[in-house]
Amino acid sequence: MxxxxxxxxxxxxxxxxxxxxxxxxxxxxxxxxxxxxIMHGGHGVFVADDKGRRFLDGFxxxxxxxxxxxxxxxxxxxxxxxxxxxxYHCYANNTSAPVARLADRVVAMAPGTMSKVYxxxxxxxxxxxxxxxxxxxxxxxxKTEKIKIISRDRAYHGSGIISGGLTGLPSYHTPxxxxxxxxxxxxxxxxxxxxxxxxxxxxxxxxxxxxxDDLITREGADTVxxxxxxxxxxxxxxxxxxxxxxxxxxxxxxKHDVLLIVDEVVCGFGxxxxxxxxxxxxxxxxxxxxxxxxxxxxxxxxxxxxxxxxYDVMLHGSDTHGLFAHGFTYSGHPVSAAAAHAALDIVEQxxxxxxxxxxxxxxxxxxxxxxxxxxxxxxxxxxxxxAALEFVADKxxxxxxxxxxxxxxxxxxxxxxxxxxxxxxxxxxxxxYAPPLVITEPEVDELVARTQRGVDKVATSLGYx
Length: 465
Ligand SMILES: Cc1ncc(COP(=O)(O)O)c(C=O)c1O
Fold this sequence. Notes:
Blueprint: H1 3-6, H2 11-18, H3 26-30, E1 39-43, E2 46-49, E3 54-57, H4 60-63, H5 72-85, H6 97-109, E4 114-120, H7 123-140, E5 148-152, H8 161-166, E6 183-186, H9 191-194, H10 201-219, E7 224-229, H11 245-255, E8 259-263, H12 277-281, E9 287-290, E10 302-307, H13 308-321, H14 334-349, H15 352-371, E11 377-383, E12 386-391, H16 407-417, E13 420-421, E14 423-424, E15 430-433, H17 441-461
Parallel strand pairs: 3-13, 5-6, 5-7, 7-8, 8-9
Antiparallel strand pairs: 1-2, 2-3, 4-10, 9-10, 11-12, 12-15, 14-15
Helix pairs in contact: 5-14, 6-14, 7-13, 10-11, 15-17, 16-17
C-alpha cells in the first residue's frame, strides 16, 4: 500500500502539500488554482499523463530528451552499470570504465581544440565549473585582477549563484540578491528588438562587437577574464545571432586576451543540425559547457570541456597553486556515463544530427509558411530543431502586449488543449520549440497544425481573426 492510499490522499494533493516546484509560482499550488500534472510515460516525441492524455512534446522536456522518450537501450545500460558498479567517485585520480571511455569519446567529439572534460550534473554547475577554471587559468598566469565575466542581456546560463547571475533575465535576480560577483553585461544578439530602424543584421553585429570592445576598454582588459555565451540564445527567447555576429565578437575577445566560454547546453549534440553550435557558427571556444543532450536527460550529467592551451596553464597550476580543489560527490558518476554512452550511440546510429538538419529545415519552412503573415506574430525564427514564434500586439508598429495580459502563457495553454507542449519563454510573448531530434516530418506537420489551432483560438478571442 502506498503512503498516498494509506492516508487516503491523491498524488496531486501529496505533491501540492510537499513539493516546492522549480520555476513555478509558489502560491498556485497552495491556493489550488493549479493542479500538478503527473507525467506517467512517453514514447518517441509523445508523453502521456496519468489520466491518459497524450501530448506531442514540442520542447523535448526542457530541450533535453533528444533521443525521444522510452528508449529501453538507455534504461538497460543504466541497469547493467548499476548492477556492476553503481557508484565510485573520481576524486584523487579515481575513475571507472564508463567514465574513462566517455571522457575519451566526448573530447574526440568536441569542437575546437578541447583536451579534457570535467564531469558534473547539470548545465548550471557545468557553467560554474567553467567560470572557476577560467579564474584558475588567469590566477596561474599571474593575472589575478583579470576576474570579470561578461554575459549578455537575456542569456540563460542556469540558476546557481554565479550561473544565475550570468543569466541575463531579471526575474532570476531580484528576489535572490543576484548577481553577485564580478559580472558585466552586454547587449543581446537579437536583431528584431535590438537593431536601430533600418540597421542591417551585419551592421547590428558590428555595433554589438563595438559595444563589447568599448565595455572591455572601459573596464580595462587586464580586469576582464572571460565572456560566456550560448551559440543561439535559448531560454531568453530562442534568438539565432544576426549575420556576422560570431566572427565580430571573437575578434574583440582575442584582441583583449579574454577567454570565450561557449554554453552548448542546448545546442550541443545535434540540436542545430551540426554536432555543436560552435561548428554551425565557426566559433573557436576556450571552454565549453555541455549537459542536456549528453545523456538525453535519462539521468543527470554535464561536462566542462577545457581546451589544450587552457589545460597547459592548469598544468603549471599544480606547481604554483597545488590541488585543483574543485569537485562534487557525483562528478563522473558511472551510471550517468553509461547512460551517456547509450544515448550517444543512438544519436550516432540513427544519424540524429542529420535528422535535426533536414527535419529542422522542414520545421523552419513550415513555421514561416504558416505564421509569417499571422497578424499576431512579429517574428518567426529558429535554426535546426530550435524555433520560436514571437507575438506582438501591433505587428506594424512592433509593439509588445502588456505583460499583465500574459499572452505567452495563454498561447501555451491553448496549445496544450490541442495536445501540444510548446514553451512560453521567460521574456516577452514567445512560444519556443525544441522537439526531440527523432521527430519526423509528419510529426512536424502535426506540431505546426496543433500550434495553429491553439494560436488561432487565442487570436480570435482577442479579435485579431
Ligand atoms: C544554455 C543553458 N545553459 C545552462 C542551463 C542550466 O542547465 P540546468 O538546468 O541543467 O542547470 C540551461 C538550462 O536550460 C541552458 O539552457
